[in-house]
Known about the structure:
Oligomer: single chain
CATH class of the largest domain: Alpha Beta
Helix content: 25-40%
Radius of gyration: 23 Å
Structural class: alpha+beta
Number of domains: 2
Distance between the termini: 11 Å
Amino acid sequence: MKSAKKILNDEFDELVKSLQNVIRFNTEKSQPAPNAPFGTNVASCLEYTLNLAKSFGLDVYNCDGYAGHAELTGTGDGTVGILGHLDVVPAKAEEWLFPPYAAEIHDGKLYGRGTMDDKGPMIACLYAVKALKEAGFVPSKTVRLIFGCDEESGMQCVEHYFSKMPYPTVSFSPDGDFPVINREKGIFQFDVVCGKLPQGITVTAGERANVVPSLCTVTSPVPLEANSSRVTCATGENGYVCTCAGKAAHGSTPDEGVNATHPLLTALAKAFPDNATLKFLSEKVLDTTGDKWGIALCDEESGRLTCSLDVLRTAADGVLTATVDIRFPVTYTCKQMHDLLRANTPSEFQIVPQHTSEPLFVPSDSSLVTTLMDVYNGEMRTQLQPLAIGGGTYSRCLPNCVAFGPLFPKEEQTIHMPNECIILENLRTMAQLYLEAIYRLAK
C-alpha cells in the first residue's frame, strides 16, 4: 500500500494533465448522433477516458455510448463498483472568471465545468486503480470504474448500462460529500402547468430543473416595481423588458443561490393582483421550505424538505409553466409527495412529474458505510459521522451504494455554479482516500 500511495503521489502531475484533457470536452447534453445518444462531445469524452484506462492496462467496455467501464479483474467473486459521470450541467462563459472548458490553473485551483462534478473525482479514482495495479495489487473482487454520460439529465445512461451489465456487489459514487453520504432525500421534479398570464406578459427563466436560475426576463406592458438592486428595466418594442440577475446553485440547496425569479414574480403579482397564476407562484412556490405551499415535510433522519423554482416558460397562448425541484425526507415516498402537492395546488393547475427518484437510505452500521468511514476518519484523523443530503447521486441507481466525496467538510461549494473548480491539494488528498477505499473494499 505504501508503494501504491507513493506511485499515485509521483504521478499526480500526470493525473492533473489527464483531468485537464477531460475537462476540455464540453460534455453538456446535446443532440443525439449514431453511438452518441447524448451528443458527439460526450461520446468523444467517454472514448478518450476509456482509451486512457486501456493504456493503463485495464479492460474497457463502451456500452453504446450511454456509459462505459474500465476494470481491474479480481481473483474471486464479487465486484467493487465506482460509479461517476462525465456529463456536466451547462456553463455560461460570460459568468466565469476563466473559460469553463479551458481547464486553466490559477492560485492552486483547476477551473472548469466538471472539475468537482464529476470528472475530477472519477479521474482521481482511475489513477488510484492505476497505482494499485502498478504496485502489484491483485484484488479479490473485480474493481470496475463505471463512467456514465447522462447523470445530470435523467440518468438514462445507467438505466441502459445496467440493462446489459450486472450490478456490482458493493459500490460507492465519488459524487457527493466526505466523509460518507448514506441518506439522500427523494427527488420530485415536475412541471406545474398554470393558468394564463395577463395580456402582454411573458416570463422566461432557467435552463435545468436542478439548477437555481441566475437570470429571469419579463416583458410587460407596464413598468414593474421590484424591490431589488438585481433588477433592471428598459423600454422595449412592446412595453418594458425587465431582467433579474441572480446566483446559480444546485437545486437541492436553493438557499445557497439567489433565485432570479423571486423579485420579478413578486413584482408581477403586485402589479397584477387578480391573476391566479402570479398569485399562486408568488405566495406559495417561492418559499424554499415548502411551508407556504403546505408541503413542508421533515424527519429526524434527513431533515426538512427543500423547494426550488428553477424554470419558467411562457407558451404562445400565455400559459405559464413552472418547473420545480423538490427534495423530500427519506421516510416519505414519491407517491406521498405527489398526493401532497395535488392536495395543496389549485385544481385547475396540472402537476406533471418529470424526474422522480425514491430516497436512498443505507444503514450506518453496514459494512460498506463503516469501511468507508474508517478510511476517511483514519486518513484524515477525524471522528465524523455519515451525512444526509438533498442532492441525488448515482448511489440510488443500484443496490448497496453510497456517495464518498469529493467535497470536503467546510470546503466552498462550487458544483453547478460559475467558476467551478477543484483545489489541487484536495484532489491529491481525495485520490489517496479513493486508493485506500478501493484497496480495502476489493482486497
